[in-house]
């Protein structure tokens, strides 16, 4: 394939929503400093997806070649020349490059910034797309004649002779040889260090499995057959399975079929906390290299994993939302676990939905995609109803386990001890006495959600947000969970200087302390963002739970998804009312999903499970519907109400947000945008606002929003494509921070 134009159209990491044209680089015929020059890759053979160094103002930037063109809006005499090509071949295959450009158009985000998101940080900086080289010790030519010198040295030399490609320091230490011994042999010239590329593991289709697959029940077998019936074309399967129904086993066996065909699998999980256990499960089953990609990796680790995926040496790639942007040499299937989870939506910068991008990617790469959840999003259920997706159901728990029994505990007029009622405490005690485990769920971190003066009623507020500080005891501090502002714990009232300050309400930290006092001698394990910051902290807690002894797990929604706790027989939800009265139209859906997800952690083995929900609204229709009819009936009713209200998925939204340091400036800016809209006829599009955001001040900035809505996607995008360039040209746009969120999930 060769070029069909004379000029290079390049995407650059710039806030400008456009491409930039350049003259091709001058051929030099040399390779220097690890870069491929135009001479080593003939200019006429430069292909879309390759990186280029180009001049941009007084700087040099790394851009991605998008296409060759014959003409430019800039006179050719004024065009600058690209400096050099970085890559010998495209880093992004055509299908993924096409997806990136589609995403830039759909989300109306600068194409260069979108393409940058598809590349690891080091590649954005212009580093070569090469694995980190390894240093290995190998035997010098004269060494075999000196093997008799010292027994231990001889043993190490013999080991190295068995490995002609050499061994790294870690491998030598693993064999029991001290670093001092290596140093002595190096100083005597008997061994020397060589630099080489890492040897990537591989596996044949005949030798895929470490463990035998589990026997599937009839529902699982039917789901697997539907997923694997056509591995050579696109089809989207919504796999709805009650918690504990064995969705992961279906994923594993579907991926086995893909691997046998010589292809790769991409598995997305919603949170980094689920990555280690998912990784472990897949490595236990398969011998193929499994790569993890998530924000917890350093830049070098991320690049190495990205290269393994893009060059085909990784059979399975597991990651959080950004992993959907990773190229695969031989794509075979995409699996999205907990597809309903809001974490798949990026809320800053390039605001994409990983789930939606994954579906578009599967279409372009002509591969199947599986969306799995016990509580599917209403959007996905609507796509089933409109025949875009196929609905696969798993309605029975695997291994003969039964679904948990639900019970509403009306706590009106009941005394509470840090959020715990006496009937709940007694129920916890009875389960512990039987040698079982208990999970206590409270979706609030910290010791207390606020600190109040008992004398005058003053509450400790964040100076940067319209929000109260959360009190933390370990270490003692006041912490705003919205902007991350922290300050030492105050000892006196900020208004009357009284020392009579009291924590109000309970968070996970306070609940942990209370339970430790009530159940002395029983381990109380807290799982939230604070307790799991250290590396491997979450896995340590999970390992302790899996030892099987009586214990109490206390945690936030980090515990609600993906975890398998076979000895947990009671789930206690301390505050079932938290999301019942949300201003967000998705509030009821999110609440139902969270309740059922956390409830699903109980009764996953031979022991029956119980869910006890403390509530002040025991007659609330949502709670009654979930308990009496289950999620499917709730979702059906919720979709009817969404249709009647003209809300997604029966309409399409975009949110214009603005923020500024000065009060009123953001709202005034969006009012100007509204006036521009009102000057033209848009019969199929409506708008609401501008209005202050529900939390108007956050991180020291005042925020406002303008909602744009249409029953059809096309007219909405036509308006946005017309509007965004006009906004960019407004002088007022430079005095605020503004952003566009297409298909917003967070209405705040």
Q: Can you summarize the main beta sheet?
A: 7 strands, parallel
Distance between the termini: 48 Å
The count of β-strands is 33
Cα-atom radius of gyration: 29 Å
| DSSP summary: helix tally | 20
Net shape? globular
Q: Uncertain regions: pLDDT < 50 for 5+ in a row?
A: 28-39
CATH fold annotation of the largest domain: Rossmann fold
- Beta-strand level of the residues, as a percent range? 15-25%
Top CATH class of the largest domain? Alpha Beta
Helix content: 25-40%
Q: What is the residue-averaged pLDDT? A: 88
CATH superfamily of the largest domain: P-loop containing nucleotide triphosphate hydrolases
Annotated CATH architecture of the largest domain: 3-Layer(aba) Sandwich
- In the sheet with the most strands, the strands line up as 12-13-11-14-15-10-16
Structural class: alpha/beta
Instruction: Please tell me the total number of domains.
Output: 5
Summary of the model, kept short:
The protein folds into five domains: 7-124, PriA, 3(prime) DNA-binding domain (GIY-YIG endonuclease); 134-196; 205-398, P-loop containing nucleotide triphosphate hydrolases (Rossmann fold, 3-Layer(aba) Sandwich); 401-447 and 506-635, P-loop containing nucleotide triphosphate hydrolases (Rossmann fold, 3-Layer(aba) Sandwich), CATH 3.40.50; 652-742, Alpha-Beta Plaits (2-Layer Sandwich). The chain is 29% helix and 23% strand. Strand 18 and strand 19 form a beta hairpin.
């Amino acid at each position: 394939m060769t070029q069909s134009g004379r000029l290079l159209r390049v995407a650059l990491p710039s806030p400008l929503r456009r491409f930039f044209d350049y003259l091709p680089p001058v051929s030099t015929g040399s390779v220097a400093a690890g870069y491929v020059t135009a001479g080593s890759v003939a200019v006429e053979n430069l292909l879309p997806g390759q990186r280029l160094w180009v001049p941009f103002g007084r700087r040099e930037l790394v851009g991605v070649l998008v296409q060759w063109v014959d003409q430019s809006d800039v006179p050719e005499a004024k065009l600058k020349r690209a400096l050099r090509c970085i890559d010998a071949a495209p880093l992004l295959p055509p299908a993924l490059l096409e997806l990136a450009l589609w995403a830039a158009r759909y989300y109306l985000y600068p194409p260069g910034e979108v393409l940058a998101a598809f590349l690891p940080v080091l590649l954005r900086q212009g580093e070569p797309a090469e694995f980190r080289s390894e240093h290995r010790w190998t035997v010098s030519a004269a060494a075999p004649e000196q093997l008799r010198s010292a027994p231990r040295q001889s043993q190490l030399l013999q080991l190295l002779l068995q490995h002609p490609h050499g061994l790294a320091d870690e491998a030598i230490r693993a064999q029991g040889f001290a670093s001092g011994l290596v140093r002595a042999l190096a100083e005597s010239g008997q061994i020397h260090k060589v630099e080489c590329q890492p040897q990537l593991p591989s596996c044949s289709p005949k030798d895929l499995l470490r463990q035998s697959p589990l026997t599937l029940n009839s529902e699982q077998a039917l789901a697997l057959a539907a997923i694997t019936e056509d591995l050579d074309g696109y089809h989207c399967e919504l796999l709805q399975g009650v918690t504990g129904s064995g969705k992961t086993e279906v994923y594993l066996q579907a991926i086995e079929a893909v691997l046998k065909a010589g292809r790769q699998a991409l598995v997305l999980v919603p949170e980094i906390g689920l990555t280690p256990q998912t990784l472990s499960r897949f490595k236990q089953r398969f011998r193929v290299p499994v790569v993890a990609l998530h924000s917890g990796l350093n830049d070098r680790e991320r690049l190495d994993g990205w290269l393994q995926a893009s060059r085909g040496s990784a059979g399975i790639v597991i990651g959080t939302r950004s992993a959907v942007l990773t190229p695969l040499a031989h794509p075979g299937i995409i699996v999205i676990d907990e597809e309903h989870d809001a974490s798949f939506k990026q809320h800053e910068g390039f605001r994409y939905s990983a789930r939606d991008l994954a579906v578009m990617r599967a279409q372009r790469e002509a591969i199947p995609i599986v969306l799995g959840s016990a509580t599917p999003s209403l959007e996905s259920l609507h796509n089933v109803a409109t025949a875009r997706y196929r609905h696969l159901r798993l309605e029975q728990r695997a291994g003969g386990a039964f679904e948990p029994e639900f019970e509403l505990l009306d706590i009106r007029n009941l005394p509470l001890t840090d959020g715990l009622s006496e009937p709940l405490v007694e129920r916890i005690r009875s389960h512990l006495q039987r040698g079982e485990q208990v999970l206590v769920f409270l979706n609030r971190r910290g010791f207390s959600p606020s600190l109040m003066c008992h004398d005058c009623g003053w509450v400790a507020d964040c100076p940067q947000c319209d929000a109260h500080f959360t009190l933390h005891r370990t270490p003692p501090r006041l912490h705003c969970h919205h902007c991350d502002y922290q300050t030492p714990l105050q000892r006196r009232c900020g208004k009357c200087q009284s020392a009579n300050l009291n924590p109000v309400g309970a968070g996970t930290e306070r609940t942990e302390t209370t339970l430790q006092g009530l159940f002395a001698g029983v381990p109380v394990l807290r799982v939230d963002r604070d307790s799991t910051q250290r590396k491997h902290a979450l896995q340590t807690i999970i390992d302790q739970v899996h030892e099987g002894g009586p214990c109490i797990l206390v945690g936030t929604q980090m515990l609600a998804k993906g975890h398998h706790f076979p000895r947990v027989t009671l789930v206690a939800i301390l505050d079932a009312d938290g999301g019942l009265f949300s201003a967000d139209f998705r509030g009821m859906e999110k609440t139902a999903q969270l309740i059922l997800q956390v409830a699903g952690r109980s009764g996953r083995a031979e022991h029956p499970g119980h869910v006890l929900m403390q509530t002040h609204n025991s007659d609330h229709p949502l709670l009654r519907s979930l308990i009496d009819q289950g999620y499917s009936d709730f979702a059906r009713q919720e979709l009817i109400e969404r249709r009647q209200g003209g809300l997604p998925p029966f309409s399409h939204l975009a949110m214009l947000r603005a923020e500024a340091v000065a009060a009123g400036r953001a709202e005034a800016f969006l009012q100007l945008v509204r006036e521009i809209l009102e000057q033209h006829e848009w019969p199929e599009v409506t708008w609401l606002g501008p209005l202050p955001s529900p939390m108007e001040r956050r991180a020291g900035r005042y925020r406002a929003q303008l909602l744009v809505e249409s029953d059809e996607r096309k007219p909405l995008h036509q308006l946005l494509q017309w509007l965004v360039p006009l906004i960019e040209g407004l002088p007022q746009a430079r005095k605020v921070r503004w952003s566009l969120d297409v298909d917003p999930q967070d209405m705040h």
